[in-house]
Protein 1
Amino acid sequence: MYDVFVKKFLIILFSLSILVKSAPDDGRFAHSSAVINNQFYIMGGQVNSPQIVSNDVFYLDLSQSFNLQNPSWIDITKSSGMPFANSWASSAVSGDGILMFGGYTWSLNSRTPDNSENTLCLFNTTTKQWSIPAVNGKPPTRRKDMKIISDNTNNFYIYSGIQLNDDTQWFLDMYMLDFSGLNWELTQMNNAPTFPRADYTATMLPSGIIVYIGGRTSVVQDGLLLESELNITQLTLFDTKDATWYPMVTNGVMIDNRRSHSAVLTSDGRIIIYGGVKGNNSLAAMPQLAVLDTTTTSYTWSVPIISTQTVPLLAFHTADLYGDYMIVAFGNVTNGVTPPTQMSSNIYMLDTKNYSWITSYSSNLNISMHHDHNSIGLIMGLICAGVVIIVIFGVLGALLYKRYKGQGKETVIATPGSSLFENAEEGGNVRDSYVSASARLSNITDNNRNSANTESSMISQSRPTSTTYDNNLSPPPPYVSLNISRPSSPYTTQTSYTGIGGIGPKNPPYGSRN
Ligand SMILES: *[C@@H]1O[C@H](CO)[C@@H](O)[C@H](O)[C@H]1NC(C)=O
Ligand SMILES: *[C@@H]1O[C@H](CO)[C@@H](O)[C@H](O)[C@H]1NC(C)=O
Ligand SMILES: *[C@@H]1O[C@H](CO)[C@@H](O)[C@H](O)[C@H]1NC(C)=O
Ligand SMILES: *[C@@H]1O[C@H](CO)[C@@H](O)[C@H](O)[C@H]1NC(C)=O
Ligand SMILES: *[C@@H]1O[C@H](CO)[C@@H](O)[C@H](O)[C@H]1NC(C)=O
Ligand SMILES: *[C@@H]1O[C@H](CO)[C@@H](O)[C@H](O)[C@H]1NC(C)=O
């Protein structure tokens, strides 16, 4: 009799643990992420199946130690109120806010694709609430496979990308969101690249230069839209100070061209890229980790020796910097033979000082962000939580015992409401309409510079002197071709330029900043 009761109680406990097992444990790709203060946030993404878009929001408290096998995610999906489910978006940090832009959005009520023009939303990490900021001016057309990136003066930049429901429409424009003035502005660029770019990474240097690395481009030839990966030794840099583009050919070792990789900037001026795929089968780009030194006149690629190699090859993941650590999260596991078939549900941390992957994270580090932690409050909170849990289980156990004694009836445990959105055919079609390659849409949140990087403004970062693109450098062969009905250029410029590089703006000077 007592045995049966204990058994039943254990079953209930087990069911409860399933009940509280949260989405953070699921495989996920095309999500967004951000580090802000001591918190590492994961937002949205495609979960469990590529047809499910999520509105998950959860975070890790980096002021606490944890084992990387079992990070203690704090799930705030329900309370934070993300305005729509979202995948393939990009996010960037400013102050205590995370701005998320682009990608696919799904209505939370109708569970259908939300086709409204707005894809911009703001997460306030102080109040832990989402909102849709009211911004003046004409926002960029809805798009995907681009990045939003911030400088430290509340300006956000969005460059190129692909129209949401038409893969033949690539953009050549750049928009600036002035978040202090809440205004969108179409940027008048000098010497803008004549080719569009998607699935790239964008890294803001302390000097105000954005380094665009890799990704793919498209050209139109004989009614065919040909896509190819951009040559990773030919960077394009955008100087936000004078809205001018500069091409740069890098020095150092040769690495695979790639798309859907990630990039973080260390405080000493190294851009560490990770993962990504290449070719029409989305095979893993090698080597998986490479370093671009931005303190040399021509930036220099190198491939460090990694002391531990247990981390899978990934794409469609995210990477963020926290102190000396690069946090790589989720994404699809790639290989050298087939398109990715498996999603990752893990995070990994690289010590960027000596390029070693760690297995457990200790908060006992002298990271400048660590001082606001109130441990007494936390301990009190934990004690309270413990008491509450004990009381709940006590009551539950008593109830159960009573019930069992009385009736011996089955106890039914409610299944949790899902925070995921089953896709209607539409989402499937949306994905299917992508040109044959199954895996090339990316959304990687860049390393958003955070307060830990204050000393980095002292690094010297040079800007290339060349202002013309070397047309003799041929792009890699296309990996995919798509028949398009219109014979003319499919690029939607949205700007006063029509794709001729090297011509200065005829319009008023860039920006309203001083
Ligand atoms: C977040 O909320 C706090 C408290 O209301 C406010 O002071 C802060 O300005 C908000 N941050 C953003 C980015 O809106
Ligand atoms: C990621 O992996 C999942 C699971 O195998 C797959 O269904 C999905 O298509 C992959 N995503 C991409 C972009 O390749
Ligand atoms: C890397 O450096 C950390 C200290 O920053 C040290 O604890 C760790 O053992 C080093 N790892 C290797 C493989 O040298
Ligand atoms: C951390 O900082 C303290 C002083 O604030 C210093 O005594 C200690 O050696 C530092 N530890 C490490 C690992 O750098
Ligand atoms: C990329 O460009 C470099 C020169 O900038 C050239 O040497 C290399 O062959 C190119 N790679 C590919 C794959 O086209
Ligand atoms: C794409 O890959 C397949 C092999 O899976 C190959 O036969 C085909 O030629 C490739 N297409 C292009 C455009 O490279």
Protein 2
Amino acid sequence: MVARRAGARGRLSAMQFLSPFDPGIRAATLLLLLLLSSLLLTGLSAAAGECRSEHCSREYERSRERLQLVERPEPNTCRLLGAFSDCMRKTKRACRGHLYFHTNMGIVERTFRKYDCRRILAEAAAAPPVTRAPPPPPPPTVPAPLDDSVCSYRAAAAAEPVVCSLFGDPHVRTFGGEFQTCRLLGAWPLLDNAYLAAQVTNSRVGSDECATAPTKLTVIVKHNEPCTGQLTYEARANESLPRAFVDGAVSSGARSQHSAAVTTLVPGLHVAITVRHINATLEIRRVAGHLSFSARLPRELAEQPEARRGLQLCSRGCLQRERVDYRRVLSSVGRVDAVHAGRPVVLTAELVTDMCRQNRVIGPYLDACVFDALSTGKTAFMEAAREAQRDLERLLPQALRQLPNRTRLGSPVGGAPGRPAAAAPLLAAAAALWVLLRR
Ligand SMILES: *[C@@H]1O[C@H](CO)[C@@H](O)[C@H](O)[C@H]1NC(C)=O
Ligand SMILES: *[C@@H]1O[C@H](CO)[C@@H](O)[C@H](O)[C@H]1NC(C)=O
Ligand SMILES: *[C@@H]1O[C@H](CO)[C@@H](O)[C@H](O)[C@H]1NC(C)=O
């Protein structure tokens, strides 16, 4: 029934896939989900880790955004639909009894047929390739580009990379690899060296006195002839991430071989700023209505003498008085009245831990995930920890491998070290609520 309703929607407008992050909840669907949840339990617990249908929809949406594609019967749409369908088919076995999977699979297949994609793709494959006019020659006034090596980073010794990140209700991972949870209000420097400066502004989240999260990030690539003039990038939590620096440029220009550049990874949600002459990569994301930040620099540039560290969060973490012992907070937390998609829910540490485990966060990222959901009452915040863990995995895979692969909450600092998780039984009530929350 649910599938048919969604299917009808799919026919009326452009396709709308059921997304786990879709805030819209319909009362009827909710009731049905409640009734169905017990039936789904077997499927859920068997396939909880493996069903990748959510990944397939996200990939589809990402490609669609990247190509700025409006769905209609034409080859590009059909190719994406085909890829989506293949992706879903690969995960079919793991998704047995998975509502999102069956609904989305139905919609994809119907749309593929409705657009007559088989014919469109066959015709596109038969058509001769379009020949393009050669690009016009560049105007003669442009100065010759610098030699590629001029703005390339040359390390004195082995250039070991280090990573700093800031995410959620804010958690800092310092260049030294220490995780902290901080109560930061107002503007704080993240890093500041001869080439690069970054600053974050934190504001309160909801009504809780203690919960704060990043709402503004400013990055300054400092003037460094001949590789770049000064460039400023500004991100605000309430706006799409800009595709360019404040002056409208996306890079320091062809002459410097674009040594400093902004690259959009997911439009409005994820950008990277690369500074080639110091081999630095900064990534900014908008997650759950807030910002997160990661930076990878060669260690020799990231490390600052004690006297020059100032209050830089990436080098020295937050001040003692701003630190929150989140493990202690978590060990004493009871039930938290929260709001999910405009509806009241009751969260407990156990339930949220289960939800975070499904997001595959481990060690300190698991703690952060649970802490953020409980301290802000916003379940969407759990995404911040997951994305931060993914950023670390991409920017510095060896650092993620060194983390304890722990899937239950850490003990309070000074307490017994967390033991590896015994697979916790998924309670019926928890699973039902999990299904509801994922709507
Ligand atoms: C730049 O950093 C990356 C990532 O750490 C590293 O693989 C690469 O070797 C570095 N390049 C130079 C020129 O140091
Ligand atoms: C976002 O917030 C800033 C200040 O907090 C404000 O100046 C700006 O107009 C806001 N933008 C939108 C789109 O609401
Ligand atoms: C943690 O362990 C699980 C199960 O052994 C494995 O699937 C997962 O990839 C590990 N995660 C990391 C980040 O090492």
Protein 3
Amino acid sequence: MTLHIPAPWHWLLIATLFIVYPIFHAIYNLYFHPLSKIPGPPLWCAIRLRYVFSQLSGNIVQDSAKFHQKYGHIVRVAPDEVSIVDKDIWADALQAPQISKDPRWWEPLPGLPALGIFGAINPDNHARVRKLISPAFTPRTLISQEPILQKYTSLLITRLREVVSANPDKPQNIVEWFNFTTFDIFGDLLFDESFECLHHSQYHSWMALLFNYAKSTVYNAVPGYYPWLGFVFKKLLPPSMKKMIRQHHQFILDKLDRRFKAIDRPDAMSHIIKAMQAEKTTISMDQLTTTAMDIVTAGSETTATALSAMVNYLVHHPDKLQNLTTELRTKFKDESEMTLDALREEKAPYLNAVINETLRMAPPIPWLPPRITPKEGKVICGTFLPGNTTLVSQIYLMNRSPSYFHSPDTFTPERYLPSSTSDPTSPFYNDQHQVVQPFSVGPKSCFGQYLAWAEMRLILARLLWAFDLEMTQEKEETVWEELKVFVFWEKCGVWVRMKVRDT
Ligand code: HEM
Ligand SMILES: *[C@@H]1O[C@H](CO)[C@@H](O)[C@H](O)[C@H]1NC(C)=O
Ligand SMILES: *[C@@H]1O[C@H](CO)[C@@H](O)[C@H](O)[C@H]1NC(C)=O
Ligand SMILES: *[C@@H]1O[C@H](CO)[C@@H](O)[C@H](O)[C@H]1NC(C)=O
Ligand SMILES: *[C@@H]1O[C@H](CO)[C@@H](O)[C@H](O)[C@H]1NC(C)=O
């Protein structure tokens, strides 16, 4: 056996690769990189690793908050990336057609045969998918979908009545109940088969994958930054994992297949099927399946988050909870009166103010997945960003900025009521409401926003109409501002005490 000892020049090569080159690269990044004029924490500007570490540990929002306080509205957080807290970001970046998503975040998951709507970076491909799917989620289609939403809200209330009456002293984790409801609604809207979470009061096995699917976006981005690591990662990934991803894809594919053969019914999928049958658009079943997974993830997780945050803020602000409960219980004598039409802003102002205020304080997507500047560069929020610069819009930090809102960190639904917006003596009169865009704007904005609003209004209104809610001392309080973020907030639980309302 011969032992192979590297010759001295091999050592030199290794040292250059692993030590000298990174040091030179870091120095270049700090002093000579086109972004070196933009302020930022030096370690972060020098190497991307620090940023990646922050993302993987869920601290990116809290970390960015500190930097913006120290360095201002535009901060360099990685060698080629800036973070922005400025209201002009909407017009300058999100509405600008030449700005696209950073492809490093959207490598297909191993085992998935196609990218869905989120990963459709190419504008033509994206426009094609969006044109096919979005007509299923307009305010008009919502009218015919209302019975489905009412059905699952009723089921939620019924199940909660059973559980609460059986065990009145036990605190409830309301996040779970919202999770069940929003998932079940999507099962029905897309596949004509609910996931039966509410029915069994437990998660469907498929949901476990979806939780990880969202979180995996963050992990999946790492190989995008370090292609060699991606190579190792793919080699190391256990085949069982790839198999599981494929199986879940197949599960949805089968559901879609059954749905395509089923009778016509007024759900979201019916619009998509009609468009496909009319051959107005072409899309593969694989892409449709992944898009369906994207939609379930994007739509249920976010809506459940918003509802959980609402309840969390309300039980910790009993006076606001009282205001809302009073509005609902004086206006509606019977559950059946709470239709989507009756819950509009003009008819139920406090309810809508609570939703607006929660979306301001705890936007379910606290920062937008990175965008990238075109090769010629672009002026964004007053700063020229050279080509290929990655930029992140900090939705949450913008909503919490004292430059845009009076007392930004206090939960005050009243700021959204006409008494504040039209009274110059109100301290909230100068609040800049157009800054708050929880659904984003422009070609990639959320087309599920009407459905989301409908679900939020219906579920919150009917819940508070039927139950008295209270915070509980038995479980630790959830402080939203301290939650970790992996694209979405990692909400472990919001515990409340519930009582069936005395009538
Ligand atoms: C309160 C609830 C919701 C919030 C806060 C929210 C927020 C957002 C945001 C900020 C984006 C843009 C992401 C980006 O630019 O990278 C987005 C995109 C999207 N949302 Fe929502 N969303 C919600 C509910 C829903 C619902 C109910 C659906 C169901 C159809 C949905 C489907 C989508 C889809 C398909 C996209 C991608 C659009 C595209 O790329 O063209 N969302 N959402
Ligand atoms: C609710 O669902 C999300 C994913 O959609 C998951 O991350 C979270 O752990 C669930 N929360 C609870 C309390 O079950
Ligand atoms: C809500 O309650 C607070 C405190 O009780 C009160 O000051 C405020 O005016 C109320 N708002 C409305 C719209 O009733
Ligand atoms: C932009 O950056 C990526 C990754 O650093 C690189 O692969 C790509 O070639 C660059 N594109 C341009 C136009 O500079
Ligand atoms: C509340 O939010 C909705 C949707 O974003 C918006 O249309 C409405 O104007 C907001 N209300 C106020 C008073 O700003």
